Amino acid sequence: MEEITLDPLDWTETRLLGHQVMDDMINYLRDLRLRPTWRPVPLAVQESLAQQDIPLRGQNPWQVYDEVRSLILPYPLGNIHPCFWGWVIGTGSPIGVLAELITATMNNQSWGGNQASIYLERQVLRWLKVIMGFPNDDTCSGALVSGTSVATMVALAV
């Protein structure tokens, strides 16, 4: 029986794509100021994205990335642009992008188990307690969550 795997068919090709994506994203962030803060998504792009059939077979990663570059990247919300003043939405940073790459690669789960990410989260929470003047003991605790919406739900539930 053939082994079922999600591994790439060609690791060298995956490495090349990874380097291309990384270079493109660094350039994307570097050149933000050269682009408009926001652009509406053209109707043709909206329809193209909404009308695609479900792929029943694996797709060539380079072709998928080409679609992302042409159909997705040109039309961000705008919150990463330095002149975006529409809403108060946090923005990423180049170093944050690299940190997310590491996090996604490790696919850490901070709920338990003996893994280093648990101890890192606890250390960050201790630092935050010190910064905010909270007691640096077990009477004060917290959790790192994905964003403001989840933080608000957790706060309301507690």
Using brief descriptors, characterize the structure shown.
158 residues, mainly alpha, Aspartate Aminotransferase, domain 1, 6 helices
Structure description:
With 158 residues, this protein is mostly helical. It folds into two domains: 8-107, Aspartate Aminotransferase, domain 1 (Alpha-Beta Complex); 115-158, no CATH class. Helices cover 51% and strands 0% of the residues. It contains six helices and no strands. The chain has helices at 11-30, 43-50, 61-72, 94-106, 116-132, 148-157. The chain is extended and about 55 Å long. 0% of the residues are buried. The mean pLDDT is 90.
Structural class, by secondary structure, is: mainly alpha
Distance between the ends: 50 Å
Percent of residues in helices: 40-55%
Return the CATH architecture of the largest domain. Alpha-Beta Complex
Q: Tell me the strand percentage band.
A: under 5%
Assigned CATH class of the largest domain: Alpha Beta
Number of E strands:
0
Task: Please outline the major beta sheet.
Answer: none
Sequence of secondary-structure elements:
HHHHHH
Q: Shape from CA axes?
A: extended
Number of helices: 6
Please tell me the overall pLDDT. Answer: 90
Looking at CATH, which topology of the largest domain would you report?
Aspartate Aminotransferase, domain 1
Number of folding domains?
A: 2
Radius of gyration, in Å, reads 20 Å
Low-confidence stretches: none
